[in-house]
Specification:
The protein has 224 residues and is α/β, with parallel strands linked by helices. It has helices at residues 21-34, 52-59, 65-80, 93-102, 115-125, 146-156, 171-179, 194-197, 209-218; strands spanning 8-11, 18-19, 88-89, 106-111, 132-135, 164-168, 183-187, 204-206. The chain folds into two domains: 8-19 and 87-218, Rossmann fold; 21-80, DNA polymerase, domain 1. Helix content is 42%, strand content 14%. The strands form two sheets. A six-stranded parallel beta sheet has the order 5-4-1-6-7-8, sandwiched between helices. Strands 2-3 form a two-stranded antiparallel sheet. Helix 4 packs parallel to helix 9.
Length: 224
């Protein structure tokens, strides 16, 4: 499918720029044991994406509200204090960002992660430069959806939706892109099962971050 060359690219984080599954899984396993609950199995790719408050009841079906709250608090404390040694950028992530920057393409992050660990991870992994990072809790008040994050980025940074790509690995990423007239690029290598991405009608699907650079180079029109 023909797409316009971007003047800006918004990236999801987990499953798009970074592989955070090992870190999240290990941290949650430790948090559960710390709270005296039965061990849980390591997380799978399908577990990454939904908010922790939605994930915990499914992983700990016998736990009451108080126990789930303790596990959540233990996870947040451990995850926020991590050195993120088990989290890795996908191959080519740093190089991709540098090349987009050199080409004058603005880069942003929109993630359902919380702000504090997101910024620490970006710094720890050397993922620069981003013009702005929008997280579920960056602004006070109720957590924002991915669609709301994109809306705010477009508005606050004067992005032209026709020349902005949203790259993500979940159906919610692609739906959010369509909500605001952005080009929806599916990260087919990420955590989202392919059968959940295709119905969202992505403008393009990439098999790796290298594929994104190729897609930019093949884009049909420069829009500034």
């Amino acid at each position: 499918m023909s797409v316009r060359r971007p003047s800006a690219v918004v990236f999801d984080l987990d499953g798009t720029l970074i592989d955070s599954l090992p870190e999240i899984s290990a941290t949650l396993e430790h948090a559960v044991l710390e709270c005296g609950l039965p061990p849980i199995a390591p997380l799978s790719r399908a577990h990454i994406g939904p908010p922790l408050d939605a994930l915990l009841p499914a992983l700990l079906p016998g736990a009451d509200h108080a126990a789930l709250a303790r596990v959540r608090a233990a996870f947040v404390r451990r995850y926020d204090a991590s050195d993120y040694a088990l989290t890795a950028p996908y191959p080519g992530a740093r190089e991709l960002l540098a090349m987009l920057d050199a080409a004058g393409v603005r880069a942003f992050v929109a993630t359902a992660k919380r702000d504090a660990p997101t910024r620490r991870i970006v710094a720890a992994l050397g993922l620069r430069p981003f013009e702005a990072i929008a997280c579920v809790d960056t602004l006070p008040g109720a957590p924002r959806s991915k669609s709301e994050l994109l809306r705010d980025l477009v508005r606050d940074h004067g992005l032209d939706p026709r020349a902005t790509w949203m790259v993500g690995d979940t159906a919610s990423d692609l739906r959010a892109a369509h909500d605001h007239g952005l080009t929806a690029v599916a990260a087919g290598y990420g955590y989202g099962p392919p059968e959940t991405l295709t119905p969202e009608r992505p403008h393009a699907t990439i098999a790796s971050l290298a594929g994104l650079l190729e897609l930019v180079s093949l884009a049909t029109e420069v829009v500034g």
